[in-house]
Structures are given as C-alpha cells and as structure tokens.
Write a structure and sequence with these properties.
Strand 4 (46-50) and strand 5 (56-60) form a beta hairpin. The chain is 7% helix and 31% strand. The chain has helices spanning 61-65, 94-97, 178-181; strands at residues 3-4, 24-25, 32-33, 46-50, 56-60, 73-77, 82-93, 107-112, 117-121, 131-136, 139-140, 150-152, 165-171. The chain contains three helices and 13 strands. The chain has a single domain (23-29, 44-192), classed as Alpha-Beta Complex (Sulfite Oxidase, Chain A, domain 2).
C-alpha cells in the first residue's frame, strides 16, 4: 500500500518560472513512498551496474565518494501534482558511472532497496540529465528522501528518480517497473502530462 503524506498546499509561482500542466508549486518537500523507508548504512551501501551481457560494475561507498562530484540545481515535478523549484543536490553524474561500461542497451531497469523498481530509456540517463545523489540542500540525504543515495532524473516525473538506489540493469528490452506495472506512464514527461498509461 503506498504511503503518501497528505496536507501540503501548493500555489502557482509568483514570478516567471514555468510549471508543467496540472502542477502547483510547493515549498515543502513532500515524502511519498511505495512502502516503508529502508535504512541503509553508508558502509553497507553498494551500487551495481550490470550490462545486458552480465558484466558487473560496482562501487561501494568509499569508491563512489572518490568519483568526481557535481552540484546540480534542478526543479522537481511529482505526478501527485506538486513541483518544487531550485532544489540543490550533490552527486555523481551517470555519465561518469557509465563512462567505462560497454553496452549496446537501450533501456535501464532501476533496482532500489525495499524492492522498488522503475524503467527508463538509457538515453535519459546520459548527457548530463541524471545523477546518483547523496546530499540535498547541503546535508546528507535523509532516508525518507532516498538516503544514503538516490537516482535523480529531474526532467521526468519524480517516481522515475528511484530512492534508495542499489542497481541499474542495462537491457535491450523495456520492462515496466513498480508504478508502471500499476498503470503509471512508461516514460513520465511532466511537460506532456504523461501521468498514466494512455496519456
């Protein structure tokens, strides 16, 4: 059963910032999860990228933290209709993580602690569009927001930015993840309002 915090209120931005259709600005950071919050210690965390041929690339926390970091500032858009402008993160670009990974895959299937999954075209993780982030607003990422590390793909609805990320499976075929199997859109572009299958 999804766990969704309710009661936050949004409004349209007063300045010239743009909202995708059907969205309202919030100054909160609502917590929405598909189940209980996993608590994974940094020393137990590991990220695996597995290619379609079974080749496995892994980083423990120390190896991940030794990679070049970026500090993206991005807007977030949740399928539940809230948007939050100018969020500040720190993490590693997927371009860095995939730099030495040989693949002809077209899709990525994301695995998270707690059993959550989501699917994306691989091209949506490249060219400075996605990160594995471990800090938010100058602080270590809190467990309720996906700490110790989560995927961040801000140009898509936020359910595609899997919290508690632990693995990326590169595939030739597309397979729906948790919310996609429940009727959410396979792609999830907020500017095209792709909330549900058929949108």
């Amino acid at each position: 059963m999804p766990i969704i915090s309710r009661g936050f209120h949004g409004r349209r931005p007063a300045d010239d910032r743009k909202l995708p259709p059907g969205q309202f600005e919030t100054f909160d950071f609502p917590v929405l999860s598909a189940g209980p919050t996993p608590h994974v210690a940094q020393e137990d965390w590991e990220l695996d990228i597995t290619t379609e041929d079974g080749a496995r690339h892994s980083w423990d926390w120390a190896a991940f933290m030794a990679l070049p970091m970026e500090s993206p500032t991005v807007d977030l858009h949740c399928v539940t209709r809230w948007s939050k402008f100018g969020t500040e993160w720190q993490g590693v670009s997927l371009d860095v993580l995939l730099e030495d990974v040989e693949t002809a895959a077209e899709f990525a299937f994301i695995h998270a602690h707690g059993g959550y999954t989501t699917n994306l075209p691989l091209e949506d993780l490249l060219d400075g569009q996605a990160w594995i982030v471990h800090r938010y607003d100058g602080e270590d990422l809190a467990p309720e927001h996906g700490g110790p590390a989560r995927l961040l793909v801000p140009h898509l609805y936020l359910w595609k930015s899997a919290k508690w990320v632990r693995g990326i499976e590169l595939r030739q075929d597309d397979e729906p993840g948790f919310w996609e199997s429940a009727g959410y859109h396979d792609y999830g572009d907020p500017w095209r309002e792709q909330r549900y299958q058929g949108d």
